[in-house]
Fold these 2 entries.
Entry 1:
Amino acid sequence: MNDPIRVLLVDDHVLFRKGVASIMAAQPDLEVAGEASDGFEALEKTRELMPDVILMDINMPGCDGLQATRLIKEELPYAKIVILTVSDEEQALFEAIKSGAIGYLLKNLEPEELFELVRGVSRGEAAISRHTATKILNELGRQSQKDAETSLAKHTLTEREKEVLQLVITGATNKEIASMLFISENTVKNHLCNILDKLHLQNRIQAAAYALREGLISDPRKS
């Protein structure tokens, strides 16, 4: 049996943390490694506990979730941070992505959905809902400006890598991408690693956003 996925809960509301920890305790493959009540404590706990996934609230006193995400990613760039918040504001969503978060979830989702997304994050997938994926598309659609210079990435990404990115922007998981492209999940992971390396980006959400903005993939709303 594999080791459980170790999760750090970061939220200033004690009842919410304890509630999530309580229902997560019933999942044999998930373990709450620790808790933090603000961003500075989250950084300390991340250093100490090295969790597999960090669930981070945004609105916290002292050091909020966005600042904490930046601090953690600067020191521990491999950390997998998912924003879990009540804020549905687009500005917070895009600031979180720019800060290095691998996902953005609202607190009104069902527990089982949260657990499945946490499992996906541990495998390197992004934790975004279809609704969040649509918001990303809408924002990028408003950024219609095109750079005059041709991006080198247009020549370095393979056609298969572009196909993978095309599916990532829809919110598809690695398993779904593998099924649609008739390849293995490991092959999908390898493609994503190559894409991030070529584009010098931190996670798949940033890569898909960059590729759409630069015209490397097409907007699925127009297909």
Note: Residues 131 and 171 are 9 Å apart (CA to CA).
Entry 2:
Amino acid sequence: MAEQETDKGRRCMLVAASTVAGGIAVGVTAVPFVASMLPSERAKAAGAPVEADIGKLAPGERMTVEWRGKPVWIVRRTPEMLDSIKQSVDKVADPDSNKAMQPRYAANEFRSIKPEYLVLVGICTHLGCSPVDRFAAQAEAFAADWKGGFYCPCHGSLFDLAGRVFKNRPAPDNLIVPPHTFLSDTKILIGVDQGAEGAKGAA
């Protein structure tokens, strides 16, 4: 009888130990699984607004910042560049920015808040290639009536200096203007709409 009670006690102890070990194993396995479902600090930061200092950007120059894993171009346009945009009106597919490829406040002649500064996502709307700068007509015969802008070498799409796609080119839409706002004369916040409440506090 005593021997049976001893065996029973051992069985209970083994069952309890196995249960505890199993629980620990499940807990150890679950921790990285649950952690993997939570966004990392880097992932959260990738979607956060990005501040760009344009104080040293000279007329005719472009700078690039990264926002949400995408290149965002900021171009400081010269009076000549702005004039070339006016000359492209009858050559581009969507001259009045009727398609929503930009925030409402950038649906204007220059697709910008301030005519001098252009802000664009540097990804072609055709197949996601990255266009290159061609701020002035060069030796390459892209198109006889092209005054300069952006050229996508993948399939030959052309964009003017407002990011508007030329007619009869593979890209279906103008380049995207991301949400942005001016914090000052020398700072732009990418990822926050112009006039959005709290924009200045995000700087």
Note: The mean pLDDT is 80.
